Amino acid sequence: MEQNPPPLAGKRLLVVEDEWLVSLMVQETAQELGCEIAATAARLTDAIRLAREATFDILVLDLNLDGEHSFEVARIARDRGKPILFASGYSAPILPAEFSGALLLQKPFLAESLQAALLAAAR
Hints:
CATH topology: Rossmann fold
CATH superfamily: Response regulator
Number of helices: 4
Oligomer: single chain
Strand order of the largest sheet: 2-1-3-6-7
Largest sheet: 5 strands, parallel
Number of strands: 7
Radius of gyration: 14 Å
CATH class: Alpha Beta
Number of domains: 1
Distance between the termini: 28 Å
């Protein structure tokens, strides 16, 4: 019997998250969907460099990295034509108008919500 490949087989993720456990959950959930983890970053400077240089298909991006907004990372990914999935722990996250249609996950989120958002980002 032939098995279908995972829905996101071969998609490469750049995960930018400063909370280790959240990053791990994102990575594990993405891998269950068939994604590869291209790279991870927890600091803004590393995230900016990876957004410019790494080979990835989808960016999962925490809005706040150790007190710094990560919009520059999103701009780089957008300019490279990469879909962005924002994650935020803010009670009322406000995205700049340039990202008004972006996918946004409210923290804390469940694996099922992340899976749905990753599938939507990959379309």
